[in-house]
Give the backbone structure.
Amino acid sequence: MERTTKKLVVLGAGTAGTMIVNKLRRRLPREEWSITVVDKDDVHDYQPGYLFIPFGLNTPEQIRKTKRPFIHGGIDVVMGEIERVDTAAHEVRIAGGRILRYDQLVIATGTSPRPDQTEGTLGPQWHKEVGEFYTYEGALALHDQLDTFTGGRLVVHITELPIKCPVAPLEFTFLADDWLRRRGLRERTELVFVTPLDGAFTKPVASRTLGGLLEEKGITVEPDFMIERIDQERKVLVSFDEREVAYDQLVTIPLNMGADFVAASGLGDELNYVPVDKHTFLATGYDDVFALGDASNIPTSKAGSVAHFSVDVFVENFLEHVAGRPMTHRFDGHANCFVESGHGKALLLDFNYDTEPLTGTFPIPKVGPMKLLGESRANHLGKLAFRHIYWNALLPGRPLGLPAEMSMAGKNPA
Amino acid sequence: MTTTTIAGHEVEVNEEGFLTKPEEWTEDLAPELAQLIGLQLGEEHWKLIRFLREDYAAQGETATLRRVSTQTGTPVKTLFTLFPGKPAKKMAYVSGLPKPKGCV
């Protein structure tokens, strides 16, 4: 009997998509499965590096590479804009008319900042007085803009949650405080953190620690601020309940949304995220569609660490799933985030669906070297070193020796 | 967790006063909960409360402000008028639901 090859199609060759195709190519026999990965372009950015660009702490060439060298042999790469997934026909339509049939589909197209969603953002001062660092272009523009900053009100603003890397706006604020001090501008600058939340962060225990740091550094917090529009002429943010925050330099984090084709395919929620089972990533109502990385609606941080831990669980489950067996691995929502706090230090947060970020040490109980939920130099160095690990071990799908499941060893319950 | 009596019902609440067991909520609790945060419920409030209850039953979590707005076709501005200051929190409170997460 002739055996037909089955088709796995992965949409998105970012952090999650690249790891998935590389890991699965090693585990799925080539005569049984073809693997195709689709993306709109050949650019792969180390996104955590965007944070450092405005302050000159990373250079553009350190964080931007081409995608193809990271995708292993035996994987077809298709470059093109994804128009729509036809789940009934099991097809992906690419702009220009190309159609890819699939037996199993993985959506890993992430989340993107959408400045078009808040009135007044894309005015004449976009990427100037109204800056952002969630894109490569935005981070570079903000670097030039900060270079001309001589004092006044520097306002860091979050539009709405969830956002990619929810700690990045706080880190930006801490690094800005440090940068202003080194430039002798801190005395002449009012640093303001504007958030739709009622505190510094989404998780109560971490929110207290991080809120304390903001206070210590003399940063004003404007909580519960739901933005309606930006008035670039008057240089103010206006909230739905008609409060105003004035700025001289704004650094906004626009609304983040999943890809538009997700909505066009009827696969998304109100922010174009794919509803999935939070333990297996199988899209609700389907048995041949998964969503991983930032593209899904799982209730944990949209972060590279989550993508990494979830891919480990997904790969084992996927092999069981296509063999017709029940999926026996369960993702626990494990996230692991370095938080730059300025002055060469960083905090480390470690949490999952059920457990708040804890104090303690990581990755080795009682030893560390990294300290959880406390500032240390080792944490900062860990964060800087991670760029090399990302390019050289994580994307190629080499094991890092960090367990996907969160461990309580060496951690002190709050 | 403490137990308190609202509209003649014994209910369990957390330190912020949110009901901890959504199933303990009944429609006659809503006006009393509203009064505790200085609100008088009209038909527009009720339309949203009913949506929140139904959506929670279907999804297992409290709808975010954006979800309430898009699913009921109510502009966010109107939600701020009906539930001033912190509409997402206030809607959840009156509807006997946990604070919306929407943010992790």
